[in-house]
Every structure is written in structure tokens, then in C-alpha cells.
Design the sequence.
């Protein structure tokens, strides 16, 4: 939000400079922020609309100098686009093509051209009850994991605002370390922690009098297994969420919450009425990102189930991987992957829209 | 202009020269002995077991091959967990290994899909006596596509000190085994961790032995159509006995497989274990740092307190049928030096190499060499005997899919956790097995 305020001030100054009539709103000091944020943004639009005519001659001159001014932005973005197309576009294209073929083990190792089978792979997975149970499981896990990680991230961020500086530094350092740990490594450590024979978690719970957790298997009961998996995933997501939301909260001007407190609002009301509305765009983005990440969770489950997840621990990405690489049904696995991508697309559109909205505000 | 002509001449000369070279090569190949390996290098993929267990056997076979052909050999060691992915990747390209080791249950799929070249069985020593459990997977439409490498059979590993303390002798019948387990459980009730018989719930190689012991089977083939047969009364009877053993006498994570059972047994809280012959050594000595293959071996708590016998089965005097695990070696269809590869394979699978393997605790690839085991490695005699009564997974092209889908593991887990009755769990597994084995 600080950005908005600052840029909201800039065009005004620019408008003043070029001597146009002051169309900018007579907002107070930039520091009064958020409430006037919308006005400032309006000012920005007005100012830039007015400015267009004024800067036009200059830009026309520049075009004359280089001739290809219109192409310049495209040239500048070209390397990134080429890299993206090569690294993301081509594999995606291959997956889509594969999903309409019958690529199996034989075709792969003998270099034979796979036959085209149209939508056969798709009809096969849509008629497969296992596939649908995997979809439901994936959606349910995503919902639980996202809600938990965003709420906990918000809670940790709020805590960071209230603690003393050294404590906050310690928290940030600890979270950065957790964040820096690759998922493969942390999952392996968690696997050892919950090991039935040697794990320290069983040992600790066993210390409680009257509780027998000796040789307790955490993955015999799917619910308990999913609790462990969710804990590992949420643990891994917390640092990013907490630090991002903490940064977002530091944009909330103290004056506003102070004013609300003076007006008799309790901390909960201040949070709901002042902090939350300002955080909303950011919350929207981190939630969308979390959905995307949790929807395609793979590493944690793969490691925790020793590379062979049982039926009740399979999510879409794992189901796709096992179908393609475990059973060498590359086309069927590709079809599952394409459906996964399509399901994600709905979420992604929301994410991209949010990004554009923020871009417009800037 | 003259320069252009000169360039053209040089170009032409280069092209013709190259063509001439190619021609020379071709002519050379037809005229020269195909077994002259001078200047060639064979690329061989072996599993890490060879590296940690019998490097000397590999080196010796390679030395004999070099002396005979003059060719070089480069051995690359693979991990079990990633070998199939690596092999698929390599086979999809052109830079393929010439010789590949695969587990005998993994072989069928590759043989069926045409990944490997046909071998001349008559050129291999002991090929008439090859263990069928190993060579069965190599046999497709009457042709031989791989050669047996080594085998392993499972035995009962037990704690001699605990048996002595409880006044027990090694069991010779299944009832004696159960009686011993009950006595050991009662005598060691003070140890919360104690398992009279450590049996992980996902250890399907073991559970299937109980199935075959009662006369059951995983699947049967009638007129080319496969049917899962785990819900047959015999198979269910076997699984019932196995599940009772797990529930009454094992302690530990029922969802675990046998991967770390040696480490668990070495902690000293278990009296009996069903494992490969070589696991008798593995429970007594382990690497100080399990992640470092070069770290020194250290004695475990059970060092010198264990012995192995055949696990008694349904018939008195005969052990429970053991899964005959092991490895086969094949030459890739894409290999450019198949004759040389077969030559190396001959040295690596002959009697000399097998004697080296026997000395390291593995079982040889032919029945006529089993007596050698009994004579020179009494510790491994139980395993050699167990290998004589063995079972094997259905030799179907799509068997690997059943393993990859974890069908049997899922069934066993559902049984031992009580999630499904044995009847329901076996029925579900049969449906999956039938579907997987008959797919086009």
C-alpha cells in the first residue's frame, strides 16, 4: 500500500510540473494513506490520462530516432518468452500430445511410433472409480492444508508483530532455515521422527503415563497418516506464509489501528476492520499460491511412504506418476496430468487476475 | 576460382576418406573375428550388491574376458530403487549399456517388450541345470533372452541364546515353531519391544510363502488368460496362518516392508526372523555409518548369537516354499557388440564365477552347484536347501505392474490392520491381479 501512496503522490507532482490544472484530489499528507488510497489511485489515472498528451511529442521524437520503438518491449521480453516456451511450453505440449496416443513401454524402448487413440485415455480415466477417489482425496487434502497453513501463517505473522525485536529476529532466522530445507530432506527427517520402531515421536508420547505408543504405526490408519502428511506440508509452507503476511502487515499504518483503538475498538475488531481489509489482496494471492502448491503435493507423500504410497495416500500427481513411470503407461499418466492441469487452471486464472489487479494499482 | 576448386577437392577428399573409412570398418568386421575385442569397451550395468558383496568375482570375470578378447569392460553400479527408471531412459536413447542385470521378477516385462537380444544358451556352462526360478523369466516363445546370475532363498534366522534360555530347540514343524514363539513371548514378557517372530506386515515375499505352503498360488494361467487365485480356500488358509503369526508374535509397524528388518533384528528385541540366507551375516555385522559404503563394519548386539534353519512348512521335513529371488543378466537389443557381450556374460556366469559367489554367501545359478554350497558354506546350507523347494511369481509380461501397483502390499496391510477380512481383501486383490495381467 505504501507503493500506492508514493506513486499516488508522484503524478501529482508531475502534473504540477507540467503546469496542468491540478486535477489531482486534494488528499492530505501521503501518510494518511489507506483511506485515501483509492483517491490517490484515481489521481494517478487522471494524471496519467492528462499526461499522455503532454509527453506525446517527446515519445514521437524518440520513435523517429530508433525507428523500432514499438518493437523494443517485445524484443526485451523475447528471451524470457523463449526460455518459458522451451522449458514449460514444450513439455506441456508433449504431455498433451502423449495423452492422445498409446505410448507404452514397448514403444518407448523400441522407438516405435505410438498409435493415436483420440480420447480413449480420457474416457478410461473418467470411468475409473479409483481416479475419482483420487480427485476427491486431493481436493479434500488441499482444502484442509490450505486453510491450516494460511490461518497458522497469519497467526505467526500476528505474533511476530507483538514480540520484541530480538525474538522476532530469532523467529525469522528459524523460519528461513526451515524454508531453506529442501522438501526431500525435511520429509526424510519427519519419516524418521514418526518411525514405528525407532522414532522419537512414539518414544515421547509413550513417556506420558498410561499411554502406550510403543511401536505405534502412524500410517496403518489413513487418517493418522494424513495428519502426519498434512503436518509436514503445513510445516514447510509456514515460513513463506508467515514472512509474507508479516511484511504485508507492516504496510498497515499504525495511525489507523491507533485511531480505531482510540475509538474503542478491541484488538479483534481492529484486526477484522482495519488489518484484514488491507491484507485482503495479499491473502488472496498467498491462498491461491498455497492451493496450487498443495494441490500438486508429491515429495512429502512420496518420501513418507517410502516411494510406494498405498492407495489411500495417492494424490493426483502421485497417481499420475505411478501410472506413467511405475506402470509404464505413459499416455494414461499424461491424461491424468492434463486433467490435473485443467483443474488447476481455474485456480490459476484467479491468481493471474489478482496479479493484474495489483499491477494496475501500481 | 582456383581456391574454390581446392576447397571442393579437400571436401571431396574428406568425404571419400570418411566413406573409405566406413567401408574399411565394415569390411573389417566381416573379415575379422567378431570375438576380437581390441579397442572396444563393454558397458555393463550391475546392481550395487556386486560392488559391496563380490567385487572380486566381477574383476576376475573381466580379467578372463580381457585375456581372451583383448576388450575392455566398464562396470556401472545401479541402485535397486532407480534401476528401472534409468534403464527406461537409457533404452529410449541410443547410448545403451551392453549388459544389464535385473531382478528376476522385473525381467519378464523387458523380455516381452523386446528390450533384450536372444542368447545362445548352448554356449553357457551349466545352462542345462539353470535354476528354473531364475531362467523362467528369460524364456519367451522358446527363446532365451537372459542368463541366471545368482539366487537367494529365505530361511528362519533365530537367536540361539534366547532359544537356549527358554530350553527350546530349532523348530522342525510349524506347530513347534508356534509353540516356540509362544514360549519365547512368555519368557520375555518384560521387554516391551520384544517380538518372538519379527514379521513386517508389507513383507509380501514372506506372506506368499505361507500361501504356497498351503497349496495356494497368486494366479493361474488357463489358455492364455490369467486369473488371480488368492481368494482360493488354500491361499486364504495360508494367509490366515501368516496373519495370526504377525498379530500374535510380531511387534512393529505393520505397514513396513522388510527393507530395515536386519536393523530391527540387530537391536536384540526379536527372537526369530524370516530372511535371505545372507541376512544371517547382515544382522550380525553392519556398517558403522549405514549411508557410507566405505565405513568399517561393526558387530551388532546379536553377533555370534544367531543361526539359520529352514522355516518348517506344512509337510514335515520339508521347509516352507521359499521365494526364489535373484538376478538375471541380459544383453540389450540396441547393443552394438552383442557377441562380445555374450562372451563376457559366459565368464561371469560360469562355474568359476559361481564358486566366487558361493564364497560370498550367494546361491549359485545352477542346481548342480548347490552341493558346493552345502560343502563349503554350512551357514548357507539351509538356504541352499530352501532353494530346492521354492515358488516364483507368475511369469506374465505384466507381472511388474502388479508389483508397481502394490496390490499384494495393500492386501496384506488391509488384513493385518483389520481393515478388511481375509476373504474381502483377497477378492479385491484377485480382481486387480486379473485386470493387470490380462491387459493388452
Sequence:
Amino acid at each position: 500500500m505504501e507503493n500506492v501512496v508514493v506513486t499516488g503522490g508522484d503524478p501529482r507532482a508531475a502534473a504540477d510540473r507540467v503546469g496542468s490544472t491540478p486535477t489531482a484530489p486534494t488528499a492530505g499528507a501521503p501518510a494518511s494513506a489507506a483511506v485515501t488510497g483509492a483517491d490517490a489511485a484515481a489521481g494517478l489515472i487522471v494524471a496519467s490520462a492528462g499526461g499522455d498528451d503532454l509527453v506525446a511529442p517527446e515519445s514521437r521524437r524518440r520513435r523517429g530516432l530508433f525507428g523500432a520503438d514499438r518493437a523494443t518491449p517485445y524484443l526485451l521480453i523475447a528471451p524470457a518468452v523463449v526460455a518459458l516456451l522451451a522449458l514449460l511450453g514444450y513439455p506441456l505440449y508433449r504431455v498433451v500430445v502423449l495423452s492422445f496416443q498409446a505410448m507404452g513401454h514397448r514403444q518407448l524402448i523400441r522407438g516405435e511410433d505410438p498409435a493415436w487413440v483420440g480420447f480413449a485415455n480420457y474416457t478410461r480415466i473418467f470411468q475409473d472409480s479409483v481416479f475419482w477417489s483420487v480427485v476427491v482425496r486431493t481436493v479434500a487434502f488441499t482444502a484442509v492444508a490450505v486453510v491450516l497453513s494460511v490461518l497458522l501463517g497469519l497467526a505467526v505473522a500476528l505474533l511476530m508483530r507483538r514480540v520484541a525485536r530480538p525474538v522476532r529476529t530469532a523467529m525469522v532466522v528459524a523460519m528461513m532455515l526451515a524454508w531453506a530445507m529442501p522438501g526431500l530432506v525435511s520429509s526424510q527427517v519427519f519419516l524418521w521422527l514418526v518411525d514405528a520402531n525407532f522414532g522419537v515421536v512414539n518414544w515421547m508420547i509413550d513417556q506420558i503415563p498410561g499411554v502406550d505408543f510403543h511401536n505405534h504405526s502412524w500410517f496403518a490408519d489413513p487418517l493418522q497418516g494424513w495428519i502426519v502428511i498434512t503436518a509436514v506440508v503445513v510445516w514447510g509452507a509456514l515460513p513463506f506464509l508467515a514472512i509474507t503476511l508479516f511484511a504485508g502487515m507492516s504496510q498497515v499504518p499504525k495511525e489507523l489501528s491507533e485511531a480505531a483503538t482510540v475509538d474503542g475498538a478491541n484488538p479483534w475488531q481492529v484486526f477484522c476492520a482495519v488489518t484484514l481489509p488491507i491484507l485482503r489482496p495479499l491473502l488472496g494471492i498467498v491462498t491461491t499460491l498455497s492451493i496450487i502448491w498443495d494441490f500438486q503435493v508429491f515429495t512429502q507423500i512420496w518420501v513418507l511412504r517410502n516411494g510406494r504410497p498405498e492407495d489411500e495416500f495417492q494424490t493426483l500427481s502421485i497417481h499420475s506418476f505411478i501410472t506413467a513411470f511405475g506402470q509404464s503407461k505413459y499416455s494414461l499418466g499424461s491424461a491424468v496430468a492434463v486433467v490435473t492441469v485443467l483443474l488447476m487452471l481455474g485456480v490459476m486464472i484467479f491468481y493471474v487476475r489478482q496479479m493484474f489487479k495489483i499491477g494496475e494499482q501500481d | 576460382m582456383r581456391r574454390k576448386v581446392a576447397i571442393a577437392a579437400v571436401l571431396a577428399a574428406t568425404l571419400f576418406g570418411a566413406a573409405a573409412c566406413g567401408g574399411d570398418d565394415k569390411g573389417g568386421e566381416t573379415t575379422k573375428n567378431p570375438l576380437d575385442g581390441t579397442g572396444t569397451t563393454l558397458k555393463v550395468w550391475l546392481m550395487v550388491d556386486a560392488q559391496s558383496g563380490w567385487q572380486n568375482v566381477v574383476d576376475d570375470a573381466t580379467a578372463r574376458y580381457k585375456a581372451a578378447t583383448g576388450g575392455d569392460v566398464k562396470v556401472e553400479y545401479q541402485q535397486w530403487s532407480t534401476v528401472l527408471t534409468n534403464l527406461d531412459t537409457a533404452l529410449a536413447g541410443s547410448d545403451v549399456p551392453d549388459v544389464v542385470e535385473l531382478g528376476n521378477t522385473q525381467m519378464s516385462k523387458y523380455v516381452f517388450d523386446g528390450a533384450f537380444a536372444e542368447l545362445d544358451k548352448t554356449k553357457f556352462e551349466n545352462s542345462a541345470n539353470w535354476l528354473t526360478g531364475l531362467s523362467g523369466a528369460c524364456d519367451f516363445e522358446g527363446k532365451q533372452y537372459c542368463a541366471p546370475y545368482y539366487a537367494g532363498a529365505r530361511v528362519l534366522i533365530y537367536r540361539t541364546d534366547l532359544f537356549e534360555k527358554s530350553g527350546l530347540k530349532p523348530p522342525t514343524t510349524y506347530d513347534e515353531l508356534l509353540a516356540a514363539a509362544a514360549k519365547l513371548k512368555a519368557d520375555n514378557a518384560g521387554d516391551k519391544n520384544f517380538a518372538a517372530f519379527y514379521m513386517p506386515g508389507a513383507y509380501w515375499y514372506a506372506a506368499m510363502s505361507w500361501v504356497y505352503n498351503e497349496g495356494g498360488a497368486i494366479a493361474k494361467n488357463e489358455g492364455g488368460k490369467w486369473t488371480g487365485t488368492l481368494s482360493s480356500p488354500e491361499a486364504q488358509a495360508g494367509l490366515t496362518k501368516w496373519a495370526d503369526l504377525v498379530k500374535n508374535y510380531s511387534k512393529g509397524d505393520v505397514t513396513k516392508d522388510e527393507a530395515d528388518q536386519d536393523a530391527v533384528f540387530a537391536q536384540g528385541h526379536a527372537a526369530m526372523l524370516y530372511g535371505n540366507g545372507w541376512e544371517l551375516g547382515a544382522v550380525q555385522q553392519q556398517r558403522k555409518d549405514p549411508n557410507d559404503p566405505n565405513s568399517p563394519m561393526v558387530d551388532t548386539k546379536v553377533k555370534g548369537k544367531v543361526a539359520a534353519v529352514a522355516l518348517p512348512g506344512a509337510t514335515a521335513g520339508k521347509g516352507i516354499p521359499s521365494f526364489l529371488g535373484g538376478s538375471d543378466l541380459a544383453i540389450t537389443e540396441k547393443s552394438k557388440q552383442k557377441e562380445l557381450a555374450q562372451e563376457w556374460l559366459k565368464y561371469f556366469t560360469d562355474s568359476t564365477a559361481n564358486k566366487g559367489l558361493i564364497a560370498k554367501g550367494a546361491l549359485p545359478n545352477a542346481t548342480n552347484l548347490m552341493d558346493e554350497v552345502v560343502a563349503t558354506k554350512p551357514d548357507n546350507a539351509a538356504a541352499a536347501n530352501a532353494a530346492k523347494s521354492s515358488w516364483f511369481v507368475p511369469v506374465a509380461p505384466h507381472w511388474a505392474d502388479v508389483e508397481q501397483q502394490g496390490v499384494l502390499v495393500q492386501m496384506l496391510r488391509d488384513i493385518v490392520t483389520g481393515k478388511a477380512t481375509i476373504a474381502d481383501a483377497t477378492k479385491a486383490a484377485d480382481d486387480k491381479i486379473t485386470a493387470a495381467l490380462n491387459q493388452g
